[in-house]
Specification:
Strand content: under 5%
Order of helices and strands: HHHHHHHHHHHHHHHHHHHHHHHHH
Number of strands: 0
Mean pLDDT: 85
Distance between the termini: 42 Å
Largest sheet: none
Helix content: 55-70%
């Protein structure tokens, strides 16, 4: 039987470091835990918290900013053991260089035993305490100037301390890359996944990013974190709107906009405008929906956001009954797609495939009284969706609803239920707010038609009303006027 490694072995240290890092603990917290668990000296704990060997620490130390320090693995080990036996006391210059190398302060590398063993001159430099002032009963003499070597060392220690703070970070480039990859995954998974599960995962990712932003990192990394935070809040806004809580959605949208501004990220600004336009439309703030879409269109960015913004503007104009404006916006959407360069940074929800664009066009043409054009666009959209590897169930449902509405408007009520079969088969947890609203509009349209009394129309209307009674927002007791928002409910469900 293979013997278990002793506590504090390399395997134990690496397991602890990986576990704590994955949970979001800082290097300092890992070092403190290692000192407490395995009684390490502070300098050794910091090195192990970084996952470095003695040789790696020596190599990094030899290339640290400031005066050159000749170090090897053996010497680093002796500095770590001090003031124990077979050790060597690190000078202030060495301590400052270690602090810069490890990304901590000099004080982090010293404990009470170290301070007891340090010479008084070194302690005065570290504490920035001037030399004691001699005095007598007759007179008080002015304080002696700080000895030249101490002043030079103090200044160097101060500069090194500030440099290590400026270079320190609570997040690495690999972690930033992974966070953005997580955003991309969620934006794609939301199109096909369970909305409640997606909301919980997105909220957890937002909390992780917010915690990192509350720490310290260089401006470049802060900007990257704000980009991830902005997209995550945009996702939460879209999801909250789909689940019927427009007030919560608007709050997430404002936070996403703040993140976009702090990051100075043009593409994120455009997608936030798109998200806020969508929320405003379903909240009945149609002029706001138009203005958000237009402002977003002013940005020159890669990808498909320009086409989506123009579609959203057309959507709002059509609800207002502005036919010319709606048609003009649809034409700009086609032009935006033709002029699009590059791809979408995030994708998924933050992208506008042509099927999604055709879905918007069909809805607009239905509202402005052009059902034949809408019927052709739904057919094109369904053909495009069939060729896509990932089919967004929300978009697909709305296309089928537009198809059914167009058939009704063209005098073919017998085809309504057949067109709606994929929608009627949707489980309740996937019946999002926009889809159920479109179904209610279809049921209402049936009552004012010449064919309203036909058996096919009456049967279809009853089926739709029953279907709408069991939707995701209603299951979660959500509405835009509720005092308890979706965020609180989601938290209760999770806990």
């Amino acid at each position: 039987m293979t013997p278990q490694p002793p506590q504090g072995s390399k395997a134990d240290r690496e397991a602890l470091r990986h576990e704590m890092t994955a949970c979001g603990f800082t290097t300092e917290q890992v070092a403190v835990e290692m000192r407490s668990r395995w009684r390490m000296r502070p300098r050794e704990a910091w090195r192990h918290a970084l996952g470095w060997t003695l040789q790696k620490a020596a190599d990094r130390l030899s290339t640290a900013p400031g005066p050159a320090i000749a170090a090897d693995a053996s010497l680093v080990a002796k500095w770590e053991k001090w003031p124990g036996p077979s050790s060597r006391r690190p000078t202030l210059q060495v301590l400052a260089a270690l602090a810069v190398t490890y990304g901590c302060t000099v004080e982090d590398l010293l404990d009470i035993e170290d301070r007891r063993a340090l010479p008084e001159g070194d302690l005065r430099v570290l504490d920035h305490v001037p030399e004691p002032t001699p005095h007598s009963q007759e007179s008080i003499q002015p304080a002696d100037p700080e000895p030249e070597p101490d002043r030079v060392l103090a200044a160097a220690a101060e500069s090194a301390s500030w440099a290590q703070w400026a270079e320190s970070t609570n997040v690495g480039d690999i972690a930033l890359e992974q966070l953005f990859a997580d955003v991309q995954t969620l934006a794609g998974d939301y199109l096909t996944g369970d909305p409640l599960l997606m909301f919980r995962r997105t909220r957890e990712l937002r909390d992780r990013v917010f915690r990192l932003l509350e720490g310290h990192q260089p401006p470049r990394q802060s900007a990257d974190l704000y980009v991830s935070a902005g997209y995550v809040c945009g996702l939460l806004a879209w999801m909250s709107s789909d689940l019927g809580n427009l007030r919560a959605a608007d709050t997430h949208g404002r936070t996403a906009w703040l993140c976009a501004e702090n990051a100075g990220h043009a593409a994120l600004r455009a997608w936030v405008y798109s998200t806020r336009s969508k929320v405003a439309l379903w909240d009945g703030r149609l002029r706001d929906a138009v203005n958000h879409a237009r402002r977003g269109s002013l940005a020159t960015v890669d990808g498909t956001v320009g086409a989506l913004l123009a579609c959203q503007e057309a959507d709002a104009w059509s609800v207002l009954g502005a036919v010319d404006e709606a048609e003009g916006a649809l034409a700009r959407a086609v032009q935006a797609r033709e002029n699009a360069t590059g791809g979408d940074d995030v994708g998924g929800l933050f992208s506008c495939p042509q099927a999604r664009q055709e879905n918007y066009a069909a809805a607009v043409h239905l509202r402005i009284g052009r059902p034949q054009a809408a019927l052709a666009e739904t057919q094109t959209a369904l053909e495009l969706l069939a060729a896509q590897p990932v089919r967004a169930y929300g978009t697909e449902a709305q296309i089928h609803i537009s198809q059914a509405t167009a058939l009704l408007a063209c005098g073919h009520p017998e085809g309504v239920l057949e067109a709606l079969l994929p929608v009627l088969a949707m489980p309740a947890e996937r019946r999002m707010g926009p889809v159920t609203q479109r179904m209610r509009e279809l049921a209402a349209a049936m009552t004012g038609r010449p064919v309203a009394d036909s058996n096919a129309t009456a049967s279809a209307r009853r089926t739709i009303v029953d279907w709408c009674a069991d939707s995701a927002p209603q299951q979660l007791a959500l509405s835009s006027g509720e005092a308890a928002g979706w965020l609180d409910l989601a938290h209760e469900l999770r806990t």
